[in-house]
TrEMBL record:
It comes from Gossypium klotzschianum. InterPro entries: EGF, NGX6/PGAP6/MYMK. Residues 1-28 form the signal peptide. This is EGF-like domain-containing protein. Belongs to the TMEM8 family. It is found in: Cell membrane. Residues 569-580 form the EGF-like domain. The keyword Membrane applies. Its main location: membrane. Keywords: Cell membrane, Membrane, Signal, Transmembrane, Transmembrane helix. It comes from the Eukaryota. GO terms for cellular component: plasma membrane. It is a multi-pass membrane protein. The lineage of its organism: Eukaryota, Viridiplantae, Streptophyta, Embryophyta, Tracheophyta.
Length: 617
């Protein structure tokens, strides 16, 4: 009996231990999710130690899906510069790290990406507000750990590049690089650059996401309600209250119809716009207090609405805002993609006599209306022509190199350009001008290409060009524009203008962002007719702008992830710049820019003569 009792006790102990371990390990995911605020690792990459020589660069692509919550970067490098020492280092020798949303950074083009150089940190990173149309650069830190949330950056693609010196000389030939390296090794001896101009880096990058789509935010603890949309009405052929014709109106509502908020409470909604839209209207209907016998007046309550594209909005960080209890919020030409809407109730206690009771709430019904034009139409009253451009791959070319032609019967040509006049809209808005729209798609992985747009006419051009990523452009809403050779986006980042004249417009959008692009042509004074004009238009995706100005070779490479192909110019001995258009050294050997030749007397004559002569051989 004693033996049976011992066996029974041992069996009970084993069963208890088994149950305990089953609870611990069988539900390990639940414990891990609880500790990680219901997050999981979407992706994690470790980049081994890599050396970056003078004027070299490395690009890294990070994909951020709509359900991502945060991105963590841990970077270690051999750079040993503090922020005070940075001021003494020329840009051509400064290790830099640059960020850009949607495409690759290119700090050689403009100095506007630098601003006042500060140390890279969570607080100094300016996020989506800056990165949507520009880039942000910082000195490479020695050690850095940074966590960026979906409130700082939007759910798209983030690129960052590591550069060892920027400016015109970065693209010069290898011998010029060796000569420059010699200059800095000798001229700057004893200064802050004592280890030579090369540096190494290693990085770990991980992206965290939310397990449940209805829970988002940095810790996936914010409830986000998905708005459901349906076709509301079709006003084709007759007017509506808004004055629009020939339209399709989508109406979007929350599933519970009515929402209620206490004072300073916030509710978040999300909506995905799938097609190019003319406008998006956000309104609150049937605003009232609860309980109904409350003596307060709902008209004095602020029902603040904050709207943001691709990222969570807040009262301090948003794209659009308005008080829905005063008037609807109208967003013209919203971009295709995910939108987030936050509703915040304010001044509720004031209107309820100062009461802080939890039973005092403001209730409302949220409604969004999205106007979409029929296929092939766009603009005011949906009466302007809109053409989808078809991608035509070039023969025997590198990946993604292509040109674009309108898809339809109006274009019958095998050439890489097309006649513009047969495609123009014949509708004049206000009798002043007409608009014609062209839509094209830059595929995934092609962000390292350059979009080339060119118009050539047999007489003075009568068109203005407006270009925008994700949504329709207008006079007040564009990413890049061209009116004439003195009024355009020249000087803006990633815009390069070439050979502009009264009869010709020729420009590039450098390292064009992935996704949908819209080109709008504004035909001025269209009442004089266009039948006598001959204007050709060409739109193409090219590797290197202007064929490296015929002063270099166009090279192709992949970013560190292997997901994006990009091209760059390798210039000859006398030219530099991103397109090899800048003359760095004359044929007489005079340096124009890029290399500081101070303290030349300190350089050993034999050493300098050897490298100088070798360079010009």
């Amino acid at each position: 009996m004693a033996e049976n009792s011992i066996l029974c006790s041992v069996s009970s102990l084993i069963l208890s231990l088994f149950t305990l371990f089953s609870c611990l390990f069988g539900h390990g995911n639940s414990i891990e999710q609880l500790a990680g605020y219901n997050t999981f690792t979407i992706s994690s990459f470790k980049y081994p130690e890599t050396q970056i020589r003078p004027f070299d660069m490395r690009y890294i692509r990070v994909d951020l899906p709509p359900w991502f919550s945060s991105m963590s970067i841990a970077l270690k490098s051999s750079v040993n510069l503090d922020i005070k020492s940075v001021e003494n280092v020329p840009k051509s020798a400064l290790p830099m790290i640059c960020f850009r949303e949607g495409s690759l950074p290119l700090p050689d083009v403009s100095n506007t990406s630098f601003g006042e150089l500060v140390a890279l940190s969570n607080s100094s990173f300016e996020g989506t507000q800056v990165l949507q149309n520009s880039e942000q650069c910082y000195p490479v830190p020695r050690n850095m750990t940074m966590k960026l949330t979906n409130e700082q950056i939007s759910a798209r693609v983030l690129y960052f590049g590591l550069f060892n010196g920027v400016g015109p000389t970065r693209t010069q030939s290898k011998m010029v690089r060796l000569l420059t390296e010699l200059f800095y090794a000798l001229v700057m001896a004893g200064s802050i650059i004592v280890r030579g101009p090369s540096y190494s880096f290693a990085a770990n990058i991980s992206v965290e996401g939310c397990i449940t789509s209805s829970m988002q935010g940095q810790y996936c603890n914010q409830t986000v309600e998905l708005l459901s949309c349906g076709l509301s009405r079709n006003n084709s052929g007759n007017g509506s209250a808004s004055g629009f014709f020939n339209q399709s109106m989508l109406s979007c509502r929350n599933n519970f119809v009515t929402s209620c908020l206490g004072d300073e409470e916030m509710k978040i909604y999300t909506l995905e716009i799938l097609r190019v839209a003319e406008f998006l209207t956000v309104s609150a209907e049937n605003v009232r207090l609860r309980p109904v016998n409350n003596s307060g007046n709902s008209s004095g309550i602020d029902l603040m609405c904050f709207v943001r594209y691709g990222a969570m909005p807040s009262a301090t960080l948003h794209d659009f805002s308005g008080n829905l209890n005063k008037s609807p919020l109208v967003i013209n030409s919203p971009k295709v993609g995910q939108w987030y809407i936050s509703i915040l109730a304010l001044n509720l206690s004031k209107e309820t006599g100062g009461s802080q009771s939890n039973v005092s709430k403001v209730c409302y019904s949220l409604e969004l209306q999205e106007l979409e034009c029929p296929l092939g139409k766009a603009g005011p009253n949906c009466l302007s022509e809109r053409y989808m451009l078809q991608t035509v791959l070039r023969k025997d070319s590198t990946p993604f190199e292509s040109y674009f032609l309108p898809y339809g019967e109006k274009v019958m040509s095998d050439a890489a350009n097309f006649l513009l006049e047969p495609l123009l809209s014949n509708y004049s808005f206000g009798g002043l001008d007409t608009w014609t729209y062209f839509i094209l798609d830059i595929p995934h992985g092609a962000a390292g290409g350059n979009l080339h747009i060119r118009l050539t006419s047999d007489r003075k051009l009568n068109y203005e060009i407006y270009v925008r990523n994700g949504g329709l452009p207008s006079l007040v809403n564009w990413d890049y524009y061209y009116v004439n050779k003195t009024s355009n986006s020249h000087g803006s980042m990633f815009f390069a203008l070439y050979s502009s004249s009264e009869e010709k417009a020729d420009f590039y959008i450098l390292y064009v962002r992935e996704g949908t692009w819209n080109i709008a042509l504004r035909n001025l004074n269209s009442t004089d007719g266009t039948s006598n004009r001959q204007t050709t238009m060409s739109v193409s995706l090219e590797r290197c702008p202007k064929r490296c100005s015929y002063h270099g070779d166009c090279k192709s490479a992949l970013d560190a992830s292997g997901l994006t192909s990009y091209s760059f110019c390798a210039c000859d001995r006398t030219h530099g710049g991103f397109d090899c258009s800048i003359e760095i050294v004359s044929r007489q050997g005079k340096f124009f820019s890029g290399v500081e030749c101070k303290n030349m007397a300190d350089i050993p004559t034999a050493t300098f003569h050897q490298h100088y002569c070798l360079w010009f051989q």
